[in-house]
Amino acid sequence: MFFDGLLPLSKQNTRLSRLQSYANQLVTFKALNKDDLPSRMENTSASKTDVLSAVISSNRLKALPAPPFLVPAVIEMLLESRYSSLVAVIPGEADAYCAEAARQHGGVIFTSDSDLLVHDLGKSGKVILFRDLDTIHLPSRGKCLKTQEYHPAGIAKRFELPNLVKLAFFMSQDHHKSLTENIRLAGKDTPMSAGFAEFAEEYGSLPKLSKLAMVETIDKPNVSKILARLDPRISEIVHLVRVKENQEAPSDLQDSDNLNMYLPYLIDDPTRTSAWRSGVSIRAQAYSLLRLLNSSITQVTEFERKGTRVAGTTVELDSTSSAVAMLEDCVKSLKDDLGQHPSLSKAARWRAVATRHVCQSNLDNEKPPPLSSDINRLVTGSREGVLSWSFIHASAQMQASLYSLRMLSQISTVVQSFLEGADNAILTPLQTLVNLLNDLPSLRELLDEKTSRDNSEIEAARAAVLSTLQSLGITQDAEPLSKKKKKRKKKGEHTGERTPPGVAWRSNNMFSNLS
After folding, report:
1. CA-to-CA dists, residue 45 to 33, 55, 56, 57, angstroms
2. CA 131, 133, 137, 139: dihedral to nearest 10 degrees?
């Protein structure tokens, strides 16, 4: 099973268009659901994989896209299964690797993409489209799968063509022409238009960028194994960093000191600042580590929602501070944060660390922090209570911080593997950071599974949240709203309900110099 781990640079417009489509769906969803949403617990048929599944299923609503981290979560679970040896995140698009495997070994490719029919799958390679799968009942065998199988080499032979590339090209040029007419055009031995070469290249051998990425690790089997287990977006930026200085790399990659990161969309409140801003300081640390592999990297452009549109946000990397000192500060801060919550389960402990980052980020940007009741629910993983938009946004912010920690974990592991064996002072603090982040639970544990409903755990979570808020100078007022309006807040206090005017919040974040 192959997963895309490096997409062509030419696909930027396609990727931005897809992100914009997600943003549009989110805006529509919010417009149709301005008030609080029903509790997930109220919908007995709710999916166990998405906090918003209870409302997505409503017939009157347009469905939101799949959960943001579904693909890395699936990869993660497959790597923990008995099929782990068959799973790889590859430096390219999965199509070309599937075709290459079929060409060499034969077999059947299961896919939802009919483009696989155009690839050279060799004499015996075949394709089954998911849309053709169906179940039938046979008296002698019971319930069985029924499907249709496509044999591209056989189809080409039937049409008296060497392959299906020219036929696919003509079909893409004019959707109104009949199949018979396109077969006739493909069979003619006439010069092709300039666009054919570019079209045919997509269905040829492995892409050039993939080959360059593989050359970079051909003598490092341990590195290759680690790269094959990365999340797709993380895999991509690591590979781009590695091949950037290669003379054969695409010119638009060589000529720029910038890299692009297409952040997964998040289900947050589209009327507020993107939830991804909550983890930017952590991601800046991760990107800065990539400079140990290629010092020419100075910034990363993150594409995310900005209001109702998708646009880039530049993250400048720190090129002045000592990498050793930064790592040591990072390790100390994480140890301190994790050490404050010894009574919590592992997943709840990391969620508590993430919510602290959310609160700190909000304060640094003069935004009100989430309500303590929302933070309690997030730390414990509770699914009870209504889904207010404030809770949905805080949940997305926590997800952003947790995934940023995951990025830091995977990138630090890759960098360590590349530097292994070198005489470098950074290896000691880097190894410490890797070991510390190895404790980070799986996405399923962090974002889906609820914490034990044991009373001691619930009380421990409440105590952890209270301690975090107090350490950040945030006071939580449980009095009725009428009384709150009559009371003047002490200077510098924050209730979590609104941003106090004229107060500038100073960051104690170890990453603040990188954001």
Report:
1. 20, 11, 11, 9
2. 140
